Amino acid sequence: LDNMKTWSQQKDALGLGLPSATWGMQDTIHVEKKKQALSVTANLEAQTGVKVGVRVKVVVENEIGRWYTKLRKGTLGRMGTIVEDDRSLQPYLVRFDDGRECWYKARWVQVA
User: Fold this and answer.
1) What angle do CA 88, 93, 99 make, to 5 degrees?
2) Each residue of 31-84: pLDDT tens digit?
3) With b meaning 16 or more CB within 10 Å and e meaning fewer, what string describes 36-49?
4) Exposed, middle or buried by CB within 10 Å (0-12, 13-18, 19+), for 94?
């Protein structure tokens, strides 16, 4: 994102297409968190080799609290393919052989 010419282009790339006049401290914090998440997932991709198109094994299916979902129940140990990386804190959409899809944090999957 830093290679872009204007702040407006950066906001658009982050999906924050709000007019500049409406931006406040919360929005600035949100942008910084988004940039941090982008950086973290890019670093993890370089270290682990996990990226779109790669077969992975699920090593953690859920965490207690905010990230728990029944949709991932029973996926521990299953193999799937990364079909999307949205560069969020839970970036990887994994599609299993039966067509089921679930989102995972970067450390929840390993290259198969």
Assistant:
1) 165
2) 676 666 666 656 666 667 889 999 999 999 998 887 788 999 999 999 999 999
3) ebbeebeebbeeee
4) buried
